[in-house]
Design brief:
The complex is a heterodimer. Chain A is α+β, with helices and mostly antiparallel strands. In chain A, 45% of the residues lie in helices and 15% in strands. Chain A has one domain. In chain A, helix 2 packs antiparallel against helix 5. Chain A has a 3-stranded antiparallel beta sheet. Chain B starts with 10 loop residues before the first helix and ends in a 7-residue tail after the last helix. In chain B, the strands form 4 sheets. In chain B, strands 3-8-7 form a 3-stranded antiparallel beta sheet, with no helix packed on it. Chain B has a 3-stranded antiparallel beta sheet with strand order 4-5-6. Chain B has a two-stranded antiparallel ribbon with strand order 1-2. Chain B is elongated, with a radius of gyration of 25 Å. Helix content of chain B is 51%, strand content 8%. Chain B is mainly α. The chains are: A alpha+beta, B mainly alpha. Chain A: Belongs to the ERF4 family.
Chain lengths: 143, 474
């Protein structure tokens, strides 16, 4: 949340021209994956490869967060034995991954998207439904 | 578009805050957010939930019979420790109170976790998202006089799944998500709304719920066994059962409670074990979504085809985070917008549901005095398309009977809803009603615990046929 507002504060002169929503991709079930299809509204602003790379990286991070591996099984069994009270004291694997994802998005915003007048919103702030890409009309940028 | 019966969402209209103050809290309206006390998100949450401990604890607005559940468990366990344990420790072994204590702690902790955890509520779509979706629907929709169908088809593991549009939350529901009308929220991997725990059971609290019913069945069986042993030992030497009961009156109470609960709780545990092993939800099982009702080759696309992996993925998967961020602070500029949205959305939802079917069906449900039974399944069951009502109402009317066999006592959801005036009356009645309701429609629960599909399968398939008969109307 902090990065969203600090970037918007830094650019008070930029008005929001449009918002593009990257929807979820359910072809593999209910795991959190986003569609990598490049939206047409961003064609003038950013390179297709760059954008798809960002979304693909996010998909990988979410897949890792929800992965069913031996580590998650052991954690789950231990949690069950303690009547799940460990969830009150420990940070879960998913939460750790979410922090990693938030850092990745901020880094991408700072390095790639903000200079092009775009802003990625962390999907967790939209209930993991969409990746919201805000397009600013910044007249100082010429593309 | 002029002929369409739905209204397009105008984000500009939504973003203007209304002067109506928020329903809960006696706070000032959003447009005058005081800088000295930033609001937390739970304070403007649009669903029918209650929050305690500054947003840490979430429960459904109607607590159902949760106090009764807690009371029964406390009373039975208390009587067990007071009346039975001293005798059994003297005559048998001192392990008995230890085992009983461990089970009791497990039951109480998992019950409270099930009741107070966010079941996997999906936050409602922001106005911008909702407008974007409406635009997409219009682009792809048809131009006939009927509003375009509010469904989207996706291919999940080579299986076609229909995603329905939720008018309240203004989004296409992800797969396995359902809108609970009692809580007025879309819940991910919605299983059912359980009145005994006073909350929905969904993705995030299903493991707590499962552990609760399994440990409760162990506890009930354990107490039942111990009480029987206790009374048998006391009645030895020709003294008789009456003498034993007179010596230990608490045991009589426990015996009655345990005898009546053990069958239904064991049955429920067995049913849910079957669901976990096949990676199904109660909702899907009752509607027969994956049972090949219409002769198509449908299989559950979410199942891993391996019982062990299914169990692990349901019970041992990484704990998903809560998506509603109850304790986050509202940013000052958004709080006005959120307030406007919360109050505007329900109005728009009602207007957009001029779609006769949903309103007609709703009216039908209310008059049938069985709203909760159907309202949980109906929002996704009743097609949000403009099919004339007569097609749907017979299917809807056939639903009430199958619903009675829902494992978690859907019956007293109805009874507790039907009369608001004598709640105690319904609660005391509901225990007996539950036994009757669970025994009559589903003989599988009477039989010794058999989680295998032959017992529940045909039964649920039969129900599923009726329940899902309106699904192909899309």
């Amino acid at each position: 949340m902090a990065e969203t507002h600090s970037l918007q504060d830094m650019r008070p002169q930029a008005a929001v021209a449009a918002k593009v929503f990257i929807q979820r991709d359910y072809t593999n079930g209910t795991v959190c994956q986003f569609q990598t299809k490049f939206p047409s509204e961003l064609e003038t602003r950013i390179d297709k490869q760059q954008f798809e790379e960002t979304v693909r990286m996010l998909n990988n991070l979410y897949a890792e967060a929800e992965k069913l591996g031996s580590q998650s099984y052991i954690e789950g069994c231990l949690a069950c034995l303690t009547a799940y009270t460990v969830f009150l004291c420990m940070e879960t694997h998913y939460e750790k991954m979410l922090k990693k994802i938030a850092k990745y998005i901020q880094e991408q915003n700072d390095k790639i998207y903000a200079p092009r007048g775009l802003l990625l919103t962390d999907p967790i702030e939209r209930g993991l439904r969409v990746i919201e890409v805000t397009i600013f009309e910044d007249r100082s940028l010429t593309r | 578009m002029k002929n369409c019966e739905y209204q397009q969402i105008d984000p500009q209209a939504l973003s203007t805050p209304t002067p109506t103050p928020p329903p809960h809290q006696g706070d000032e309206p959003e447009k005058k957010t005081e800088p000295k006390r930033p609001k937390r998100k739970w304070e403007v949450f649009p669903g029918k939930n209650r929050f305690y401990c500054d947003g840490r604890i979430i429960v459904a607005r109607q607590s159902g019979v949760l106090p009764l559940t807690v009371g029964l468990i406390l009373v039975t366990s208390g009587l067990f420790f007071i009346f039975d344990c001293p005798f059994l420790v003297k005559h048998l072994t001192s392990c008995i109170p230890v085992i009983g204590g461990v089970l009791f702690v497990f039951v109480i902790i998992t019950l409270l976790q099930t009741s107070f955890t966010d079941p996997g509520i999906l936050p409602r779509a922001t106005p911008d998202e909702a407008a974007d979706i409406e635009k997409q629907i219009d682009n792809t929709g048809n131009t006939s006089y009927r509003p375009p169908p509010r469904t989207k088809e996706v291919l999940i593991n080579q299986q076609v799944v229909k995603l329905k549009y939720c008018f309240t939350c203004k989004m296409f529901r992800p797969p396995r998500t359902s809108h609970c009308s009692l809580c007025d929220n879309c819940v991910e991997r919605f299983d059912h709304h359980c009145p005994w725990v006073g909350n929905c059971v969904g993705k995030r609290n299903y493991r707590f719920f499962y552990t609760f019913i399994v440990s409760l069945s162990f506890l009930t069986a354990f107490i039942f066994g111990c009480v029987t042993t206790h009374l048998a030992l006391r009645a030895q030497g020709g003294k008789g059962l009456v003498f034993a009961l007179q010596e230990s009156p608490g045991s009589a109470v426990e015996l009655v409670i345990c005898f009546f609960s053990v069958w239904s709780i064991l049955g429920l545990s067995g049913f849910h074990t079957y669901l976990v092993a096949s990676n199904l939800t109660t909702n899907e099982d009752i509607k027969g979504s994956w049972s090949g009702k219409s002769g198509e080759d449908v299989t559950n696309p979410y199942s891993h085809k391996n019982i062990f992996i299914n169990c692990c993925s349901v019970l041992c998967a990484p704990m998903p985070p809560s998506l509603i961020d109850r304790r986050g602070f509202l940013p000052a500029d958004e709080s006005a917008q959120t307030g406007g949205t919360d109050i505007e959305l329900p109005t728009l939802a009602t207007k957009s549901e001029i779609n006769v079917c949903t309103q007609g069906t709703k009216g039908l449900l209310e008059s049938a005095a069985l709203p909760p039974l159907l309202s949980t399944s109906c929002p996704q069951g009743k097609p949000q398309t403009a099919h004339p009502c007569p097609d749907i109402s017979p299917a809807v009317n056939s639903d009430p009977s199958p619903e009675l066999s829902t494992g978690c006592g859907a019956h007293h959801r109805a009874s507790s809803h039907r009369d608001a005036s004598p709640p105690r009356h319904t609660k005391t009645r509901s225990k007996k009603c539950k036994r009757a309701a669970l025994h009559i429609p589903n003989p599988a629960f009477d039989a010794p615990v058999s989680p295998t599909s032959p017992d529940t399968g045909p039964g649920s398939k039969g129900r599923g046929h009726k329940g899902a008969s309106f699904a192909p109307l899309h």
